[in-house]
């Protein structure tokens, strides 16, 4: 079931939803971009429908509610431990199809990747429902079609996209139909792109010989190890733990989970001063093969969803999508050599 809404009708829908949900959506932040006097689109809690950015691609991913860059997990004293409080009100997260596919990758890593689900992630995950933002066009650096994440058939309670001066919403979850009382019933299906400007090829299998391939050497000189590609990625899940002590005796404080980045110095440091993958080329190899090989072996699908944010964010103009094609070419050539 779908609805056509005027701008005023959509505002009334958001006002009605606010009574029951916190709303977390992409927001245009004017003048706060990475360079002087540039804008950026990033996620935040919103109070008005007009704050929700539906036209521009978000520079950062939705995941900062589920996995904040820095999150206090628990507080401890000498004889007590208390889990940190989180919002107890349900949350609606507005996201595009590629990011909705990324949710499944997050679930795989935190809920299905071991003998028990990550309790701290799960309690946030249980609060969340998703709103799909329809995509009428492909954005710069997107390659979602190649990764199969351009379309979502389920997993959302309703969709929304601009339609002239108004809005079009598909509402598959009947429990949300009452929120659209200001709309006109219509047959609506979410828009999705069928072709990107850039196509990516990913090998079905990656042979071990690719680990020593010369293609990685280029990135030892080009990559500066800033980690931007990791922090904007909706499927990167690595973190480190930090204990913050309030007193010198070390018995009162808090434990934090802090986002980590495989492209940054120190990620592979071990006791005794050892460090694996010292060069940026080795780190790039790890990141790329984890996205298109390691994750697939464990969970059956590529970790990368083709949002292209890593390409958008890189200050050295390193294209991850180009790397994937280079890897595929190298794999195909290795296969020819074997023959």
UniProtKB/TrEMBL annotation:
User: Which lineage is the organism of this entry classified under, starting from the top rank?
Assistant: Bacteria, Bacillati, Bacillota, Clostridia, Lachnospirales
Q: Name one GO molecular function term.
A: iron-sulfur cluster binding
User: Encoded by which gene?
Assistant: asrA
Q: What class of enzyme is it?
A: oxidoreductase
Name listed for the protein in its UniProt record: Sulfite reductase, subunit A
Under Gene3D superfamilies, the record lists: Alpha-helical ferredoxin
What keywords would UniProt list here? Answer: Iron, Iron-sulfur, Metal-binding, Oxidoreductase
Origin: domain of life? Bacteria
Enzyme Commission number: 1.8.-.-
Q: Does the record bear Glycoprotein in its keywords?
A: no
Q: Does the keyword Transport apply?
A: no
Naturally occurring in which organism (per UniProt) = Shuttleworthella satelles DSM 14600
Residue ranges of every copy of the 4Fe-4S ferredoxin-type domain listed in the record: 212-244, 295-323
